[in-house]
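**Protein of interest**
===
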Amino acid sequence: MKSFIFDVLNDLNNRDADFSNLTFILPSKRAGVFLRQELSTLVEKTIFSPKIISIEEFVEELAELKTITNTELLFEFYNSYLELTPRREREAFESFSKWAQILLQDFNEIDRYLIPQKEIFDYLSAIKKLDHWSLEPEKTEFVSNYLKFWDKLKVYYNHFNTSLMARKSGYQGLVYREAANNIDAYCAANPNKSHIFLGFNALNTAEETIIQKLLDSTMAEIFWDIDTSFLENPIHDAALFTRKHKKNWPYFKSHPFNWVTENYKKEKNITLYGVPKNIGQAKTVGAILDTIIIENPELKSTAVVLGDENLLIPILNSIPKKIDALNITMGFPLQSIPLASLFELLFTIHKKGQQTFYYKDVISVLSHQFIKPLFENDDNNEASKIIEAIKINNLVYLSLEDLKTYSSNPLTTLLFSNWQNNSQQAISNCFNIITTIKEHLSENKSNNLLSLEHLFRFNTLFNELYRLNESYNHIKDISALYSIYNELLSSETLDFKGEPLQGLQVMGMLESRVLDFETVILTSVNEGILPSGKSNNSFIPFDVKIENNLPTYKEKDAVYTYHFYRLLQRAKNIYILYNTEPDALTGGEKSRFINQLQLENIHQIKHHIVVPQVPTLDISLKEVLKTDSAIEKLKEVAKNGFSPSSLTSYMRNPLAFYYQKLLGIKDLEDVEETVAANTLGTVVHDTLEALYEPFINVLLTVDNIKEMKSKIEDLITHFFKKQYKDGDLTKGKNLIIFEIAKRYVQNFLNIEIKDLKHGNTIKIIALEQKSDIPIDIPELGFKVALRGTVDRVDEYNGVTRIIDYKTGKVTPGEVSILDWEDITTDYKKYSKSFQILTYAYMMHAQKPLNFPVEAGIISFKNLSSGVMKFGVKESPYAKTKDSLITQDTLNHFEKELKKLIIEICNPEIPFIEKEV
């Protein structure tokens, strides 16, 4: 395949051009590398290399101005704004930067297209006055200020440009305007220079002026790269700009139009891949490269062009390992580097200017991959120690002093000291953090080269921030610093090193300008990406842009149409991938470019919809066999004692019992931002125990209960502090839960008072009574025990009651049974009955009960039901049940209890997972 660059050089060579005295001007620097390579293969004698520059470099040379960064332009523009705006009307730098960036883009466009500034600014001001005309003689302050802003645009523009010109610098548009103004002088001063322009498409007015002047002065030639298929089709956007140049430039009325080629209609292998999601596209690219390598091991003239540059990392991770020659033209965004997330976290917590830090932010900083290793010492990791302390003490908000009680590392102060809302102090702290990380990584430099490179790039970024603020002093607080930091970060990249002329080329769409490849893999060809669609980030209305020949989204789409078709023009093997999954932000519809390719019907196009190979999930319930070690662990658990909750855990799901009791796997402990249900339950239990404890073995009176009521708030507060540690109970949901706990206890005591007033007698026998009893099961051949704690045992009108408190909702139906054999099989229906009967069984074994007794549950969410007593129903339809527990009741229960324990300990019965 002959490339466009080769064709141009070959044509010049055939005309005996003196390459050493030529100046080649290209759309990008990247193309210069390929031009130099093609020239070396074409020229047969030793020559001095021609001058090869980008259009931006050439324009800077003409204008004698240096283009400065967008961030520095913003600072310089704010200088002009402050000089022209009365003090009381000035905006802070942070809010100014939001609209100023849009205005700078508009200044750029106005100048690049050589629009008379006075006319367009006066026109815009007149339009806005028409938009806000009013019958009221006096305009509101808001409307007046709004119209004043449009009147000032011209003043802002003139002052800003004057100050930039005095510094011999400018934004791109200003440089282009000055270059166009200076082109006559340049031609007069350099009549013998020869310029070759190649590969251009969409030219702004300044570029057109410069190139046409050089052409008319016979100081230049221009080579277009357009195909007949596009040029001769009056509605094909790939040739939108080229057709205009050919028609409107006087030069082409008497000179040939070089060149119109006929490469597009040549035979091509085009394959479309509809792939779900970005990761799917990356994997598909890897699969395509695997097939290409078979016929083209060195991947000569092969490029992966990314429509969406966010695909870079997934693509790099999907490239086959056998590919060892790789060149990445595009830079990796600095904001995607892990170190960026650390500074994002630090700015987020410090821009609030608070003295305390939210625990999740603290944990995120201390757990960060660049920070956690810095807390290592001989004994432990202090970062882990702080995180553990946060969880144990339930700390939701922490001050620096809180953190320093757990860590003496000076880095703690550096990370969490108040940055005093001072931008220079914040930058200084960031420098110190970078230095600390660097010292740690340098200890094992060979393994941390990439991380050290990341640190260097961020150090450079903060140096730039420091320099700008030293020069301009516009950043007054951390919030403004964060805004500018993000602006700088979004434009900074980490550049890759590679061999630009060998192996696989990975690049973005704009980097492909002027370059030709035999095999092209193009990703993300979706609407909203290629082309990017309607976006109007400008103060200049659409109709005003049309009137002044400024580019709109239509021209932007045409630029991408040209790049898309130019990539296909000389290629032989083309793979086009698009995302099939709809996405609100990036779209799921395939691009109009694909539809256009299919409608043209010039090439045969294969179309594949890629269905990802998703592994079939094993949905069968798990089984765990009881090994010898498991049996030994079971014997240990049995000897220490099964609790009612552990037995009901087995009933609910034997596999969960295995994980918790045999493997010792506990639920993950985390900070309770909102009081958890189990914490509420513990507080209510502990409060009731404390209230009733002084009255054990005493017949309760109404006065006793009233005395208890006066202590509720203090006890609830005490036990919440004990369980919830340093968690905040004074606001939000926690305050509501605190009040609910008080209400639960108050309502319970009110029911007790009501009972006593009705002539019933209540005598507390025991509170939180612990039981630990052996149980004789000869079939097992080893000791088994039961242990548990009964919330309350009392005598109600002379009948002993065994009561379990529940802060959740329980209904009377949950403490009734029909068939004794069901009590250990259905967790949802019978677990509550099983628990209270286990308590009764243990108490009787510890000290024989005076039958009959009652056992029941008090549900604080269903207090109106009172004590819901266990009972046996004769049939499902029976409205009554036998609520008295006798020796016969416990004998029936003991039989089922032993069957359950034998099943748990039976080596032949595995732990079989249940669907929960």
Summary: Residues 22 and 194 are 5 Å apart (CA to CA). The longest helix spans residues 141-166. The chain has 33 helices and 28 strands.
